[in-house]
Amino acid sequence: MSRLSYLLITMLLLGILAPFVAARIEAPRQGPPDPLRPADPAFEQRKEALLAGIIAAYQDQPLRGKFAYWQAQALLAAGHTEDGIRLLEANLETNLEDVQGDRFGAWAMADAYWRWRSVLPASTKESFKRQLTGYADYAGGRTENHRLMLATARYLAGEAWPDAPFASSFRDEDPSGRRFLLNRMNRYVHRGTAEFDSPAYQTFYIGPMRSLADLAPDPAVRQQAAMTAAWLILENAGEWLDGHWLSASLRYKREYDGQDAFLSADYVLWLYFGASFTPDFASEKALFAVQAAVSPYRFPASVTAIAANREHAFVHRETDRWMGRHHYKTTYLNRTYGVYSVMEDYPVHTAFSEQYHRWAVQWLRPSGTSRLYVKHPHPVTGEEGTTGYEQVWQHEGTVLAVYALPEDDAHPWVRLRTPLSFRAVIDESDRGDVFFHYGSVLVALRLSEAFGWDASSDAHAHRAGMLGVVIETALPEAYPGPAPEQLRAFKEAVQAHALRFSAAGGVPTLRYQDLHGARLSITYGGARTVNGRPVDLHTWPLLEDPWMQQRVNEDRLVIQAGTRPVVYDFGTWTER
Q1: Number of Cβ within a 10 Å radius of residue 459
Q2: What is the per-residue pLDDT across 377-417, written as a single tens digit (0 to 9) for each?
Q3: Which of 43, 116, 397, 441 is 20 to 30 A away from residue 331, measured at CA?
Q4: Which residue, 143, 128, 126, 72, is CA-closest to 291?
Q5: Residue 241, SS3?
Q6: Global confidence as pTM
Q7: Which DSSP letter does residue 456 get?
C-alpha cells in the first residue's frame, strides 16, 4: 500500500471510526469545564493532520523507547487498535532501565497505560505492571523536567497498583511523588518555571500536568494539574506569532532559526494555537504532541484568539523565579515580527548558560532562517549559549546591549547572526551600522565601533572588550516606496538618533533615543532607564499583556478574553 493511500485511510478512520473506538475506552477523568470555552473548532483539523501525518511517517518504522508509546497512542486513537497494542507489547519486552531516555519513557508508559487500559489485554496490563512497579530509578532525575516526569509516572503507577511492591520510590519521604507534584504546581503558577520557555523541554512540563489532569483518580490532583497545565500554555499565548515562538529561554538545546524547524514544544503549541502552515510530522519531536491530540481537553477558542490576534503591536512581560535566580522577560510583537529578551539578576556563568538564549529579532518567513542576534558565546560551546558579560535592556521593539569581556576570556569576541534572506541591505559597518530589509521587518544593527560585515556569510565574529549594541526595528510599510527606498528612509530615521557609548572606569554605558522618542540607557551592572526613570525589576509581573495580568506570588490570574473576564484563583484552585 502506498504512503498516500495509508494516509487517506488513516484520516478516514479518524473521522469515522474514532467515535466507535472512543465508546470502548474509559473516559479520562477531568476537572470542571473551562469557563473560557467553547473550544477552537480548528483544533480537530490540526489534531487529525498530526495523527495521520505521524502514522504515515512511521508506517514502516515501528519505533522503540520513549517515542514508541506516543506512536502507539496515535495508532490507538486512529482506530488501529491491534497495531497499537502490538507496538506496546514489543516495547514492554525491554526493561525501562535499558531504554534510552528512560525518564521520558517512564512517563510515556504510565500515560499510555492509564489512557488505554480499557482496551488492553490482560497480559499487556501485566507487562505494564511489571515495568512500572519494577523500575528502579524513580529517584534518578537530574533536571526539573526529569523529576516532573518521574514523579508523574510513579504517582500514576502507585494509583494503578496501590498494593504492589515497588522497586523504587520517588523520595523516601514522598514515595509516590504526590507531595512533590502538588508543590511544583503551586510554584509554577506563582513564580514561573525552572527551565523557562524551552522549545525542547516545555513539553515535559505541560505533558505531565496533562496526564494528571486527565487521568489522576484524586480530584484535588486533577483540578490543580488541569489549572497548571492551562497556565503553562497561557503563558506562551502572548509569544506566539504564526508558528514562531518568540521568547528568550534558559534551555535552547540547539539553535533553530526558521518556522519550519520545530522542536517538541513547538508542535504542542502549534496544535493548541495553530499557524498558517502545517509543520513536518516526520520529525520524532512531533511525537511528543500526540498526548495533547488524544487528550479530551480542548483549549478555548478565546485563548486561541489571543495567540492569533496580532492586528496591533503589544508587549508581553513575564517573570520566572527559581532557586534565588530571577529572570525578567519581554516579548514585543508587531504583526509580522517580534523582538524578545531576558534580564537576569545573577551572573550567567553556571547551570545551563551554555544553552541560554538571551535575545533576538525574529520575523515571519515560510522557511529558512529568520532570526538576528548578537551574543557573547559560552566558553564550553564557543557558539551557542551566552555569558554574564552581556547585559540587555529592551523597550518595545528596541534592544540595548552592553558587553564587558575580560581581556583573558577564552572567546574575546561577540558572534553576530544576520540571515542573508534580506531583500535589501545598506552596509555602513565601517561606521558601526548595517541596515536590513527582511520583507517582514526592517532591522538596524548598530555597534558602538566599526566592525567587519559582508554578505558572503550569515555569521560574523567581532573581537571586542567593551562594546555597545543597539537593535532598532520597524514595519516596512511605515516607510513609502519599494524595498530599497523603504530601507533608505528607515536608515535616515534611525541615524538621526545618535548612539552614545562610554566605558569610563571599565563600566560600559549605552544611551540611545528610539524612533518613537523614548530615551533609553543601560549601564553594565547598573541601572536601566526609560526617559530618565530607572526600571524597577522587583515589580516585573509574572504575566502581563493586553489579555492577561498576574503579579509574582499572586493567586489571581485575570484573563480578558471572550465575552467576560475570567479569574483563575490559584489560592483556592478554582475558576470563575
Answers
A1: 10
A2: 988 888 888 999 999 999 999 999 999 999 888 889 999 99
A3: 43
A4: 72
A5: strand
A6: 0.92
A7: T
